Amino acid sequence: MRIIVESNYDEMSKTAARIVADQVKRKPDCVLGLATGSTPLGMYRELIAMYQRNEVDFSRVKTFNLDEYYPLPADHPQSYHYFMYQNLFKHINVPREQIHIPQGIAADVEKACQEYEKAINAVGGIDLQVLGIGENGHIGFNEPAERMHVATHLTDLTEETVRVNSRFFSSLSEVPRQAVTMGMGTILKARRIILLANGPRKAQAIKEAVSGYITSKCPASFLQVHPDVILILDREAASLL
Ligand code: GLP
């Protein structure tokens, strides 16, 4: 596990964007695993700027997002579909048919999860997975629990996550209580992983994620067994290391 500590959010975002852009330049038809949340917003802004300067071409890239609230229609302003189109996809040239996001509404959600997993495998797996981290150490929506799911699945959100994420909704009661998320195995199979974290609220989760121990109480701690993970932090998120 490599740890890069940047002086602030903008530097963290630039470093992350550089790694993503380098991946796309090295392998123009690569598969990117993408994350939502406020953390990667700066990285997406940088990638859009690079695209506008003709420094990177996404026309052959395939993307798979980590997770989506359930049930929530794709056009709901708080859906991760909506987030990704507003904050990245509508500004770059990745073709719509190469974009994959778990379905927030499905007639057979279990089948949809299996198909998502198959679609990732069918393109040869994820080359570079971008992650944020929850205050409780979750990655994607793999919440702290006694047992961790390996593959893409429907999961219950913890009360803490519902509360933390309620800041984006008009009231607590509007926050979906479930989500579809890649599993721990889906994430750990990515060839390379970068995890971004900024601000003091992430410091404890980061400390546990690099502790030298693996525990399902901090799902991000499993990243320690992966051969190619880079944590890109600002000073505050790194303050307990
Ligand atoms: C959500 C997402 C995660 C994300 C986390 C942190 O719960 N499912 O993928 O990493 O929030 O969000 P933020 O970056 O807004 O702190």
Q: Can you lay out the helices and strands and say which pair or pack?
A:
Blueprint lengths: L1 E5 L2 H18 L4 E4 L6 H12 L9 E4 L1 E4 L9 H8 L11 E2 L8 H14 L5 E4 L21 E4 L2 H7 L12 E4 L2 H5 L3 E6 L5 H7 L19 E6 L7
Parallel strand pairs: 1-10, 2-3, 2-6, 3-5, 6-9, 9-10
Antiparallel strand pairs: 4-8, 7-8
The site of 2-amino-2-deoxy-6-O-phosphono-alpha-D-glucopyranose has 14 residues, from α5.
Mean of all residue-level pLDDT scores: 97
The share of residues in extended strands comes to: 15-25%
| Biggest sheet details | 7 strands, parallel
- List segments where confidence is low: pLDDT < 50 over at least 5 consecutive residues: none
In the CATH hierarchy, the architecture is 3-Layer(aba) Sandwich
Bound molecules: 2-amino-2-deoxy-6-O-phosphono-alpha-D-glucopyranose
CATH structural fold name? Rossmann fold
The largest sheet has its strands arranged as 1-10-9-6-2-3-5
Q: End-to-end span in angstroms? A: 14 Å
Helix content: 25-40%
Top CATH class? Alpha Beta
Can you tell me the number of structural domains? Answer: 1
Number of strands: 10
**Count of DSSP-assigned helices:** 7
Series of H and E elements: EHEHEEHEHEEHEHEHE
Summing up helix and strand content along with how strands pair, one would put the structural category as alpha/beta
Q: Report the C-alpha radius of gyration, rounded.
A: 17 Å
Which descriptor suits the 3D outline?
globular
